[in-house]
Amino acid sequence: MKKGLLSLVGIASIFILGACGSSSKSGTSSSSGESKTTDAADQWSKIEKAGIIKVGTSADFAPFEFHAMVNGKDQIVGADIDMMNAIGKELGVKVEYVDMDFNAVLASLEQGQVDIAVSGISATDKRKKTFNFSVNYFSPEQLVVVNKANTNKYTTLDSLANKKVGAQKGSIQESIVKDQLPDSQIVSLAKVPNLMVELKQNSIDAAVVESAVAKSYVAQNDDLAIADAKLETSEGDAYAIALPKGSTKLTEKIDTILKKMIEDGTIKEYVQKNTDLANENASK
């Protein structure tokens, strides 16, 4: 037990500092909406003039965005971060990251506090009503993580009926639990590491987590395992960069760069590189 908790502390040092809300309120008047659209249409010109693009993220979602010690300094790293740094270089602007809880990321984008949002965000139909999205750059698998002692107990989705199932608040995983495990009791927490602590302490019975994140935790904690219970995936689960509604020019510029990175395998390389980095840092 001590070994498991020490391992979790190692991971928490990476993850608890902040990857992917289900929706944002858009109760603005029509005139306000038109003003926002007008501002968004001119967004690229403002970013280009300032020379900085401000990115909202939640750095508790390794391997996509997380904190790690690099050359003795705490830094935000991850596949999304490498991707955005490359995009910023192509655009000719400096990338500035604003770290926050995941359920505040899209709200901050809508309120104009950041220019774009990159945090393992799924481009759902509901979100597309409020935001522009880039092309999808990564299609994740969703997995169920359980206490290793319960792997034979939770082998199907039906076996999780009336059980406590955790998900990150405001994430696509929260929606998946509600849709695919309607008979379970959902437990929504702000950060993924908190879910794993609850799971290790048997305060919850399972947690729905993106595959790369799930595998990283399981690799570092002998008392956790991936259950055989299979969840369905959809196109709406895929990750994309979120932008203000109407920010057409910036969306087009980002899409051009992203498509090249997808085609040449750069995105996959970033995910693998940062999966290894997360596991390496967690084991220290």
UniProtKB/TrEMBL annotation:
Protein name: Transporter substrate-binding domain-containing protein
Solute-binding protein family 3/N-terminal domain boundaries: 52-278
UniProt KW Signal keyword: yes
ATP-binding keyword on record: no
UniProt source species: Enterococcus camelliae
Keywords recorded for this protein, A-Z: Signal
Residues annotated as signal peptide: 1-19
Disordered: region residues: 21-41
Lineage of origin: Bacteria, Bacillati, Bacillota, Bacilli, Lactobacillales
Stored SUPFAM superfamilies: Periplasmic binding protein-like II
Compositionally biased residues, Low complexity: 21-35
